[in-house]
Structure formats: structure tokens, C-alpha cells
Amino acid sequence: MRKTIQAVRGMHDLLPGEAFVARQVEEAAREALEGYGYEEIRLPVVERTELFRRTLGEVTDIVEKEMYTFDDHGESLSLRPEGTAGCVRAAIEHGLCFHQVRRLWYAGPMFRHERPQKGRYRQFHQVGAEVFGLAGPEADAELILLTARLWRRLGLEPERDLVLEVNTLGTPEERAAYRERLVAYLERRRDELDEDSLRRLHSNPLRVLDSKHPAMRPVIEAAPRLLEHLGEASRERFERLCALLDLCGVPHRVNPYLVRGLDYYTHTVFEWVTDRLGAQGTVCAGGRYDGLVAQLGGHDTPAAGFALGVERVAALLRELGRAPAAPLPHAFLAMAGEEAVRVGLAWSEHLREACPWLRLVLGGEGSLRAQLRRADRSGARYALVLGEAEAVQGTVGVKPLREELPQRSWERDALLERLAREGEAAWEGLALP
Ligand code: HAM
Fold this sequence. Notes:
The protein is α+β, with helices and mostly antiparallel strands. It has helices at residues 16-35, 49-56, 61-66, 84-93, 137-153, 172-188, 195-203, 217-221, 232-247, 292-295, 310-319, 338-354, 368-378, 388-393, 412-422, and strands spanning 39-40, 46-48, 69-72, 75-79, 102-111, 123-132, 163-168, 253-254, 266-273, 282-288, 303-309, 331-335, 360-362, 382-386, 395-400, 408-411. α1 packs across α5 and α5 (137-153) packs parallel to α9 (232-247). The chain is built from 15 helices and 16 strands. The longest helix has 20 residues, at 16-35. β3 (69-72) and β4 form a beta hairpin. The strands form three sheets. An eight-stranded mixed sheet has the order 1-5-6-11-10-9-7-8, sandwiched between helices. Strands 13-12-14-15-16 form a five-stranded mixed sheet, with helices on both faces. It is elongated and about 90 Å long. The model has no long low-confidence stretch (mean pLDDT 95). Bound molecules: histidyl-adenosine monophosphate (HAM).
């Protein structure tokens, strides 16, 4: 036998049930986003490597070691590890954010060469949103309110099922001053730093605060806090955001250690986290990035956004027993004999024409018995049975598969007419005498 070929590590097939839940998450997100005036934008999966270097930051984990980068006839290209960089690139390139307020959303696969584990994949899917041209904390609040509405739409209750953490990173100048203070502090406690933190001490010291290493806790807890070293305006801005969230009834927790793993953020950052998914508990994350458009050669434009991980939201729904199931077929048409198959195929098309809502599965090949077994497994509520006799007589047997009721014979035309007239509800009691 030939050796089978399996999927690449960390890149998963979404099987039928899983794909259905993922689509419901994406659909709910689309509805929520459109409700706030976001327009869809479709972006390439591949961009110039330079774009990610310039936006995400040279010394971030993603750019240092997680990108799928390849040479394309002398040009370095990368699979997108996230969507913000490409969205900003497109917005500048097509003048979408020039002196105007623009709300854009996108969905699709992202690629990061991380160590795969539960909830962390090398190909995963995001739905993301970016708003350009609004500078105030009201815009940040709106983004957060949108996500809270989305959770409720999906049957998740903010605070009970997932918690909102917020923080502010201030302006780049404030952060640079703080960074010096933090490095000086960490240098004093150098002996206590773990390997990762030592590596980040000078390249990306703020990320040390994000360390999950238990031995680092006391070091982190005694570290100077960015919030306390911000200027008046930045602090006031953050207080206004928190007050707006209170006003709109969105519970939140200020997490002074929330720094995010990407370099482009300024002021507000936030994450929705859950403890139901183990180590990969962040289902949605975002923040403000006021410097990025100018940094990529566009006009100075304030901007903010977020992205949710579709697999993680779906996993949370499953974990809580709230994942929607795909609707079952209404009926399964079992046909036996050459004439019945011919008549059945033509009739089923009339039926579909008259009832666009119909979920009808054709029995396929094999004996009537085999088809009825398949009908049962399909989850359909009824089997429609078409043998040689029914084919000639213009009838069809309606056999309930989920109730203890006998099969009933219907004129095919009459059944079609009733289903067309009464819609889905017509199935109720179809087998009743
Ligand atoms: P991020 O935090 O890198 O932010 O990713 C956003 C979300 O994508 C995460 O919260 C998580 O749910 C999901 N995610 C990330 N990596 C993986 C992975 N390896 N496997 C499964 N899910 C994953 C961004 O990507 C920013 N672009 C968000 C943003 C938009 N900020 C402003 N605008």
C-alpha cells in the first residue's frame, strides 16, 4: 500500500461540524461589524516581508522567528502572520484613509510558525476590524462595545464567559522614557530573570512584563508601572475610556502587564480572555496604533482595531456546550428501481424549485434497505420512499424516522403543493393519517 500524506503540522482541516461552527462565528462577526458601518476588504495572503518588518517590529517574536518567508525570484515575500499590516498597506495604497473616517473588516487565514499546541496553530483564522481617522477614546470604546455585542450574539456572556482586560501604552515618547526606567530596574534584578526575559531585556523589555514564567512573578510585580509614568493627557484619555465602558455596562479589568506582542500599539490595548481554554486563552485582541499609517508612508492618521481568533472562539463555544449544530436534512429520498430513480430525480428538482428552503438528500445507490439505513444516519426527519409501484402511481411514501408512526402514502403533486404553500412548518404532521 502507498504511504498516505498527512496535513502539515499545525495546519488543520476544519471538518464538517467544526467548519459549521467557524462559519457561524464569522457570520455573526460580519453581522455585528456591518451593524457598526464596517465595510469588508479582501486582502492578499502574501505580502512583501518588508511590510511586516516595518509594522510589527524587528524584534517581535513574529518577525524574528514565526514568519513563513520565501524568496520569489529575488524578492522576499511572507505569508501574512496577521491582518493589520496588510489592511493599512491597502488603505494607504488606495487612498481609503486619506482625510476621512473609514471602517474596514477582513477575515481569513493567518500563518505563524509557532510551536503548535491546543488553541495555537500555524494556520489559523481571524476576523479583524480597523478604523481609521478617529483619535478619541470613544472610537476605542466603540470597538470594544462591538466585540461585546458579538459575544452576546454568539451566546457568550461578557464577564461570565470571557473577561475584558484593558491597558494603555501611552505615546511612543512616554513609552521610551518608561522603557529606560524598566531596563534599569530589570538590570538590578538580572540574576532573577529567566532565559527569555534576559534575551528581551534590551531588545523588547516591555515583553518581560508579559512573561508567564512563575519565577518571574515577584520581579514583575515589583516593576515600575507604565500607567504611573504616563503624562496627564494619556492618563486622562485612559480614564475616559474606562468611564465610557462603565457607562455602557461593559465590565473590564485593568491589567497593567498587558503589553501585546506587536510593536505598533499606542494608548489603548485590550484583550478578551478566558480560563476555559488552557494556556491559549486570548480569543480576541486589539488596540490603537496612531503612528502606523505615517510610518508606512501615509498621512498622519489615527487608527485602532482588533482581531479575533475564529478557532478559539469556536473552541470556547464548544467548551461551554453552546456551539451551534448544522441543521439536519428535512428529508431523505430513497428510490429503488430504474424508473423510480428517473422519476424521483425529476420530482426532487420540482420540489426544490417550489421550496427553496428545502434540505433534501437523495438516497443514492443500493437497496431500499441500505438507503433507509443511510436515511436514519443522515439525521433526516422523514424518508420519502419511491419504489416501482409509487413511481407509476404518482405517489410517494412518507416514512417518519424520528416518531413511532406508520408510513403514509401521498400523491406526489399534493405533497409538493402542500410543502410549497405552507413552507417548512408543513413537515409537522405530514405522516399523520
Ligand atoms: P494578535 O493578538 O496577534 O493580534 O492575534 C489576534 C487573535 O488571533 C488572538 O487573540 C488569537 O485569538 C488569534 N491567534 C493569534 N495567534 C494564533 C495562533 N497561532 N493560533 C490560533 N489563534 C491565534 C493581531 O493579530 C492584531 N492584528 C490585532 C489587531 C488588529 N490590532 C489592531 N488591529
